[in-house]
Amino acid sequence: MTPLSGYLLVAALLFSIGLAGALTRRNAILVLIGIELMLNAANLNLIAFWRYGPHPEALTGMMFALFSIAVAAAEAAVGLGLIIQIHRHAHTTDLDRMNRMRG
Amino acid sequence: MSLVFYVLAALTLAGALAAVTLKNTVHCALALTVAFAGLALLYLELDAQFAGFAQILVYIGAVAILIVFAILLTKGSETPKEGVYSKNSLAGLVMAAGVFAVLGWAVIESAKVLPNETAAPDVTVLQIGNALMGRYVLPLEIVALLLTAALIGAVIVAMHEKEETK
Asked: How far is CA B63 from the centre of its chain?
């Protein structure tokens, strides 16, 4: 097994764990945690391909990962703001009980 | 494949697994911090020092704290009596296992053509700064705009609406 495929396997497992968390948990915050794990798995792939790719001095994968970290931070801030507002409105963060679209 | 890699991979995956399976939400957030730390160390192992420290600053320093605050503000640490898993969690598990099967198969099948051990790239923070201010200056500005918009948006979304109540 080459080092790159080891990192890719770890990233695939991390993505699957995040996906399982996002699909199986009831609490909206835990779903957001699962999404964060999936984003991090993608970042690990980007960094691993940058490290073992043909032109690491071009910094392409590294830059992609850095911008992805910034976008994920923005996503977390807005997502948690939405969850707090939904909790204020519906008094629950249980996604199974959020089954109507009108206020 | 060095021993360090296996230890860090095990730490990261154990943290991630605990983050999605533990019952108490606060414990989940703490396990998520462990997973983020493991990822930062994996980045350092991959000679991406800048990305590793950015990961520590942004994820452990900001996102994990933000998640803990959200848990405290939504009283999410109480375990619901119906259990922590959703009604259709079995379908979710099957889907995640299927995704991992496809990804793992693709990685193992392509292992022959993947590049083997290469020399560590000699990348300094100066080069990263030059790239950010040169070739990647437009994405950098767009990210700055996005972060400003997200900051204002998050504050507006989470703000109390006083006008409607009077």
From this structure: 9
| Long-range Cβ contacts of B33-37 (<8 Å, 24+ apart) | B33/B60, B33/B64, B35/A14, B35/A37, B35/A40, B36/A40, B36/B60, B36/B63, B36/B64, B37/B11
The total number of residues shown for chain B amounts to 166
What one-character DSSP code corresponds to residue B85? B
Q: How far apart are the CA of B29 and the nearest CA of chain A, in angstroms?
A: 8
DSSP, collapsed to helix, strand or coil, labels residue B23 as coil
Query: What SS3 state is found at A94?
Result: strand
Which residues, listed in sequence order, are joined to residue A94 by a DSSP beta bridge? A27
Per-residue model confidence (pLDDT) at position B166: 45
Q: Which two tokens stand for residue B4?
A: 């360090």
ipTM entry: 0.92
Chain segment A40-65, per-residue pLDDT in tens? 999 999 999 998 888 888 888 899 99
Report the mean per-residue pLDDT for chain A. 89
Side chain identity at residue A71, one-letter code: V
To the nearest whole angstrom, how far is the Cα of A102 from the nearest Cα of chain B?
17
Q: What are phi and psi of A25, to 5 degrees?
A: -85, 155
Mean pLDDT of B153-157: 89
- How far apart CA B115 and CA B101 sit, in angstroms, is 22
DSSP structure class, residue A55: -
A40 with B59: Cβ contact below 8 A:
yes
Size of interface A-B (CB pairs under 8 A): 248
Q: Do B20 and A20 touch (CB under 8 A)?
A: yes
